[in-house]
Amino acid sequence: xxxxxxxxxxxxxxxxxxxxxxxxxxxxxxxxxxxxxxxxxxxxxxxxxxxxxxxxxxxxxxxxxxxxxxxxxxxxxxxxxxxxxxxxxxxxxxxxxxxxxxxxxxxxxxxxxxxxxxxxxxxxxxxxxxxxxxxxxxxxxxxxxxxxxxxxxxxxxxxxxxxxxxxxxxxxxxxxxxxxxxxxxxxxxxxxxxxxxxxxxxxxxxxxxxxxxxxxxxxxxxxxxxxxxxxxxxxxxxxxxxxxxxxxxxxxxxxxxxxxxxxxxxxxxxxxxxxxxxxxxxxxxxxxxxxxxxxxxxxxxxx
Length: 303
Description:
Blueprint: H1 3-17, H2 22-29, H3 37-44, H4 49-63, E1 67-73, E2 77-84, H5 93-111, E3 119-121, H6 131-137, E4 141-142, E5 149-153, H7 166-184, H8 189-200, H9 208-215, H10 219-228, H11 233-250, H12 256-262, H13 268-279, H14 283-296, H15 298-301
Parallel strand pairs: 3-4
Antiparallel strand pairs: 1-2, 2-5, 3-5
């Protein structure tokens, strides 16, 4: 999605909501979607906040490429800023406030503590009421600044993350790196096949013949073109399933059996074996880890 369209959607959402604190409220709810996503899961398994910030900045395009975060550490201050990719320097008001609230909550979830910024700056003008801003950020909030930024005490960068899992982090970062490199490459034949697989896969066993039918070419042509790019159809299927598994397992409304079905497995046991091969964890262990982190951070999430 282009930056202009992304910003346009935000402005329309602001208009329709009629809520003066729409952006702040949305930012505080972002973590409820798929447990925060693969990027947050990778951040949540780093050792310290600084490593989590590095992970966020490097791989943010994989999660959402319309907004790019940046951070800068001085002797006494940790400064977090954002920019719109290819867009204007000024965010729509509620978009800026949603991003800021979401990140403040992310730091609290990572550390398991109610860590507050020292200051919050917004480039836009002050709204009629700033009561909700004061409640969410619990620090001085100023408007009409030269940029939108969160300013933390510099020591925050070295704060430990709650119960990191190094093995899982390595698995998630490998996945994020593969996707980042794919984004940076021009559109390839394998990328086209992967997109079709993603659209066919939910609830349906992946089939080379079905992909060939959708693309209007023979199965042999697909295999040959993929071989030229150094990847097999089976490897593509595996990659799509692995990618979707993190998202589906992050949604606690799905049972593990339902996740297996959505990924096109005839039996849950086949999914269990595949997921353990990818991550070193069973789907149940992975899900329990997410539940534990959510439970530990429940009071943090609700402010």
